[in-house]
Design goal:
By secondary structure, the protein is an alpha+beta fold. The chain is built from 16 helices and 19 strands. The protein is globular and about 65 Å long. The protein binds flavin-adenine dinucleotide. Flavin-adenine dinucleotide binds next to strand 3, helix 6, strand 10 and helix 11. The site of flavin-adenine dinucleotide has 36 residues, from strand 3, helix 6, strand 10 and helix 11.
Length: 463
């Protein structure tokens, strides 16, 4: 901890005005010009009205804010990219500790290491790293924050080739509940480091991440629009699972949107929008796609060499702010019963309903389950039932449809990804942390946050 930080913590200011004067960053309050814009989060269905937003300029501001909130008994919400499905980065009457101004990024191409401020988005980091022909695995969407994504695990386009975001994490600078600034790594606070790799925001506020980078040059990326048939859906998982690990696919089962590379006559038809990244030789990528094309002739496709960040253009719409509800699960496979449940649900779905299938395995599956707090290493498929862009009058039918399909699939679930949970209760959080993972996290929580100061998250109760 530097001297300035230790000077500023220890004597928490008693009112918001004095508190604001202690910050290097800014305090935004209701009535301020910036309040409406700064308080917005991705999921409009979970928008809160915070008491104040601390736009932290450094770890010292974060420590000061934690101490102020604690001593005045104000609930803390932590925000980096603002893409929490559950809306945990906002709330009514909370103090939002907002990291979005921590945007420093230093890339050392020779050592293949990056030091990244917690306020960066996956798109910003990935674009800067791509200039060196390097990448760290994040998720499928550019606007998602590296912080929330990494702390939950980070499942994205390079999961099969290079693993999860946490598998590239080397070190984190963390402000703990008692206002200390510590470094967590394999050698310093190793238990905290283990917990941060999947345990979410439970253990402190990360202000800086150090990541490994991998060589990722031009990719073959894009999407195939396959007709939605039983055969296509049944063959999707086996084909994607046996593809070379360079290929990671994310399929959205949804009607064909009006995209330029699909003939107009197909727009609106039920389809499998199979997005992919092949992080390797483009010709090998085309060969890896051939089995999908052999199951059914695509309505249209865009499969082209591109810089790696180019894939974010295919998911940009989902990253924009809107009202959304999601249920998600891991499965061993998508059996015939599950295929039929999805197909029959889609026959009668409210507008904009979709099902996402991510076929996993490869590098992410080779890390032992106990090595990180993300323990679902053996998961083969992640299914997410999504109702994005829900108009107010459709909230009820969309939610009912979503939960009915979830109920049909849940008996086959092998787990759930913490970052894809909404507020679903303690039992579901335990499903995210199987075996002895939850108890181990609860023990670490007791050491680093015994009073459960950081509880607006998929909360681990101090053991
Ligand atoms: C459109 C969209 C696409 C997504 N795609 C993927 C994907 O491909 N792969 C994937 O793995 N996930 C994905 N997610 C889920 C995503 O990883 C989580 O929603 C994640 O929490 C978002 O991080 P954030 O920083 O943007 O969120 P925020 O809303 O800012 O934070 C969410 C929570 O994370 C914790 N947190 C955030 N920052 C910090 C910090 N600096 N220190 C401590 N705790 C912190 C807090 O508990 C906070 O409430 C997606 C989400 C959306 C909305």
């Amino acid at each position: 901890m530097d001297a300035a930080v230790s000077f500023r913590i220890g004597a928490a200011p008693a009112d918001l005005t004095t508190f604001a004067e202690c910050l290097r960053g800014t305090l935004v309050r209701p009535g301020d010009d910036a309040y409406e814009q700064d308080s917005q989060v991705w999921n409009m269905a979970r928008q809160g009205a915070p008491l104040a937003i601390v736009r932290a300029a450094d770890a010292g501001d974060v420590a000061t804010a934690v101490e102020f909130a604690r001593s005045n008994d104000i609930e803390i919400a932590v925000r980096s990219g603002g893409h929490s499905l559950a809306g945990h980065s906002t709330g009514d009457g909370v103090i939002v500790i907002d990291l979005r101004d921590l945007r420093g990024l230093h890339i050392d191409p020779a050592r293949r290491m990056a030091w990244a401020g917690a306020g960066l988005t996956a798109g910003e980091y990935t674009t800067a790293a791509a200039a060196h022909g390097l990448a760290t695995p994040f998720g499928d969407t550019g606007t998602v924050g590296i912080a929330g994504l990494t702390l939950g695990g980070g499942i994205g386009w390079l999961a099969r080739k290079h693993g999860l975001a946490i598998d590239a994490l080397v070190e984190a600078e963390v402000v703990t509940a008692d206002g200390r600034v510590v470094t967590a790594s394999a050698t310093e606070h190793p238990d905290l480091f283990w917990a941060l790799r999947g345990g979410g925001g439970n253990f402190g506020i990360v202000t800086r991440f150090t990541y490994e980078l991998y060589p990722v040059g031009e990719i073959l990326g894009g999407a195939l629009f396959l007709p939605l048939t039983r055969d296509v859906l049944r063959s999707l998982v086996p084909i994607a699972a046996s593809a070379p690990e360079e290929l990671t696919t994310i399929a959205m089962i949804m009607p064909v949107p009006p995209m330029p590379f699909v003939a107009e006559e197909h727009h609106g038809k039920p389809s499998v929008f199979l997005m992919f990244v092949h992080a390797g030789d483009p010709a090998a990528g085309q060969a890896a796609l051939a089995p999908f094309r052999a199951v059914a002739t695509p309505y249209g496709e865009a499969a082209m060499p591109m810089p790696y960040p180019g894939i974010y253009e295919f998911t940009a719409e989902g990253g924009a702010r809107h009202a959304s509800t999601t249920r998600s699960l891991f499965m061993d496979t998508l059996d015939d019963e599950s295929v039929d449940a999805i197909l029959s649900a889609l026959e009668d779905a409210p507008p904009a309903s979709m099902v996402q299938l991510r076929v996993l395995g490869g590098a992410m599956g080779r890390v032992p389950a106990g090595a990180t707090a993300f323990a679902h290493r053996g998961a083969s498929v992640m299914v997410a039932i999504m109702n994005p862009f829900v108009a107010p009058e459709l909230v009820e039918p969309a939610t009912a449809w979503n939960r009915a399909l979830f109920a049909a699939l849940e008996p086959k679930a092998t787990g759930v990804y913490a970052n894809f949970l909404e507020d679903e209760g303690d039992a579901r959080i335990r499903v995210a942390y199987p075996g002895d993972t939850y108890d181990r996290l609860a023990g670490i929580k007791r050491r680093y946050d015994p009073a459960n100061v950081f509880h607006r998250n998929q909360n681990i109760r101090p053991g």
